Amino acid sequence: MYELNKEKFGEFLAVRRKKEGLTKKELAQKLFVSDKAVSKWERGAGMPDVSLLIPLADILGVTVTELLEGQELKAEVCMDTDQVENLVKKAITLSEEDPETVRIRKRYPIRIFAAAVLTALLEMLLLMGTIYTFEQGIDSGLFLCEGLSIAFGGYFWVMIKEKLPVYYDENRISAYSDGIFRMNMPGIHFNNSSWPFIVRTGRIWSAVSMISLPVLTLAGTGFFLSFWSTAGRFILLLMFLGGLFIPVYVAGKKYE
Q1: Domains (ranges, CATH) in the chain?
Q2: N or C terminus of the chain with fewer C-beta within 10 Å?
Q3: Tell me: the pLDDT tens digits for 97-107?
Q4: The predicted structure's pLDDT at residue 11
């Protein structure tokens, strides 16, 4: 593995911070992290997230190369291709997992999600056939909730990152953003202690929702069709969304 020398990195960081006339708290404020995080870096007990390397190097008045190497380099020193490649790999392994490990771990969630989607689609076809027999229509609300279940399920089962960046553990952050997915939960703080339980909650919710909505509708065709077309549609939608956010909140609060 291409591992950084954490002790050398920490010593160099401390020297450059003092040379720039910064306290740990001042450096932490510039990077929007805690002073405890800076202390951990300088002790060699932890490393900053890869996204912080460029701003950290700028603040310390060094290059990212010097920061990763833990020493000031002479201007005339040139790095050959192999050295550059090793340096890049060090930066990548700073916060990224081995791609093969991630691929293997994702294999079973993808299979479970595919099975849940297939089951839900078969149930929807059966439901549509039953409704057609009774010469009634299916309210669009059911398709909306089913579509949301599949969309969220695709994210939680397939796309979601199972490990948060380091700065989530070093700061009290209540919002998570990944592409078009946004989650803002005031009152809880995302970190790598609570994140596995939040991911599991999202996965269970999406799978149960996908499979149960058509079954519940099919089990009480007459009742559910009238229920969807009244104020019950709004209540059911609240229950549907609450089934995700309430367990996520509880899991996040319990394990933060």
Answers
A1: 6-93 (1.10.260.40), 99-255 (no CATH)
A2: N
A3: 445 445 656 77
A4: 92
